[in-house]
From TrEMBL:
<keyword id="KW-0238">DNA-binding</keyword>
<protein>
    <submittedName>
        <fullName>Transcriptional regulator, TetR family protein</fullName>
    </submittedName>
</protein>
<keyword id="KW-0805">Transcription regulation</keyword>
<dbReference type="InterPro" id="IPR023772">
    <property type="entry name" value="DNA-bd_HTH_TetR-type_CS"/>
</dbReference>
<dbReference type="InterPro" id="IPR001647">
    <property type="entry name" value="HTH_TetR"/>
</dbReference>
<dbReference type="InterPro" id="IPR050109">
    <property type="entry name" value="HTH-type_TetR-like_transc_reg"/>
</dbReference>
<dbReference type="InterPro" id="IPR039536">
    <property type="entry name" value="TetR_C_Proteobacteria"/>
</dbReference>
<dbReference type="GO" id="GO:0000976">
    <property type="term" value="F:transcription cis-regulatory region binding"/>
</dbReference>
<dbReference type="InterPro" id="IPR009057">
    <property type="entry name" value="Homeodomain-like_sf"/>
</dbReference>
<dbReference type="Pfam" id="PF14246">
    <property type="entry name" value="TetR_C_7"/>
</dbReference>
<feature type="compositionally biased region" description="Low complexity">
    <location>
        <begin position="267"/>
        <end position="298"/>
    </location>
</feature>
<dbReference type="Pfam" id="PF00440">
    <property type="entry name" value="TetR_N"/>
</dbReference>
<feature type="DNA-binding region" description="H-T-H motif">
    <location>
        <begin position="77"/>
        <end position="96"/>
    </location>
</feature>
<feature type="domain" description="HTH tetR-type">
    <location>
        <begin position="54"/>
        <end position="114"/>
    </location>
</feature>
<feature type="region of interest" description="Disordered">
    <location>
        <begin position="250"/>
        <end position="298"/>
    </location>
</feature>
<dbReference type="InterPro" id="IPR036271">
    <property type="entry name" value="Tet_transcr_reg_TetR-rel_C_sf"/>
</dbReference>
<keyword id="KW-0804">Transcription</keyword>
């Protein structure tokens, strides 16, 4: 990451809560992951996990992913996970004290691998709009991926009986992503271009805009267009609405309809990426203008 993103250079460390070891490598002691959730597989558990092989740990997590995807959290047993992962049940417990710890580790691994991808191009944009579109596209691709849809299905179905699952997922996923974007919005030069009284709220609002017309349908397994053209349209529209709300100066951008192909881009302000109509010499949009021609917010 560039200096514009400030202290957020090591996204792996920021996006995921660190795993402390307390002298026992392989023991996950992240917040929310130590106390077993109620349910099966919490009895006959060794007091500490002592497995030390990263390859074996990864093998177990791969097997767990398949079982959780097929059976959900409550329906998955440690015996079944051990068989699918190709390890003994004793070996499994050497790495994960309980199913709760295993599922937390699975969530943390997913977010550790996927969350940084959302922000890897946030400082590559020629202007703020382009940077936000990089984030928007990455977010849409992430939330419509099979892995994310599977996790969302598990969390929603099990949250009532196992609220700690939802808390773990929220803390390591959406909450981390919100904190990163909020910090970016609050830093220069974004802070001088945008009027954002509550960066955390604004970040959550931006993520909600990015899910329009696609996330809900995908999560309910309804037909949905996930083509690059449609994702580009949603990302571009989300950024338009966001900047129309929070930009300090400049005209509002008019809405656009999806045509199934990339629309021709109008000229833009080099700092914000706000479009201007060069054919008329005036800013595009539907904003109210004063008698001097200066655009004001409605």
């Amino acid at each position: 990451m560039t200096d514009q993103f400030g202290q957020v250079h090591n996204l792996s460390a920021l996006c995921i809560g660190s795993i402390e070891t307390n002298g026992q490598k392989g023991q996950d002691t992240s917040d929310g992951c130590n106390a077993p959730f109620p349910g099966k597989d919490t009895a006959q558990v060794p007091p500490t996990a002592t497995g030390t092989s990263p390859a074996k740990r990864a093998q177990i997590l791969e097997g767990a992913a398949r079982i959780f995807a097929e059976h959900g959290y409550e329906g998955a047993s440690m015996s079944c996970i051990a068989r699918n992962a190709g390890v003994s049940k004793g070996t499994l417990y050497n790495y994960f004290d309980s199913k709760a710890v295993l599922f937390c580790a699975f969530i943390e691994q997913c977010t550790r691998e996927k969350l940084p991808l959302m922000f890897r191009r946030i400082d590559e944009g020629a202007n703020m709009a382009e940077s936000l579109e990089h984030v928007a596209r990455a977010l849409i691709q992430l939330i419509t991926s099979p892995l994310s849809l599977m996790l969302n299905r598990i969390i929603i179905s099990e949250a009532g009986n196992f609220p700690e699952l939802a808390k773990t997922f929220w803390t390591n996923g959406p909450q981390k992503a919100t904190s990163i974007l909020a910090a970016w919005l609050a830093r220069a030069p974004q802070s001088s271009l945008l009027d954002v009284p509550d960066p955390t709220f604004a970040a959550e609002q931006f993520y909600a805009l990015c899910q329009t017309h696609i996330a809900g349908r995908a999560r309910m397994q309804l037909p949905v267009d996930t083509s690059p053209e449609h994702i580009d349209f949603i990302a571009h529209s989300a950024v338009r609405v966001f900047l129309n709300t929070y930009q300090r100066t400049g005209a509002r951008q008019p809405p656009q309809a999806y045509t199934g192909k990339a629309a021709a881009e109008p000229a833009t302000d080099t700092a914000t990426g706000i479009s201007t109509d060069t054919s008329t010499g005036t800013s595009t949009g539907t904003s109210t203008e004063t008698t001097t021609g200066t655009a004001t917010r409605p």
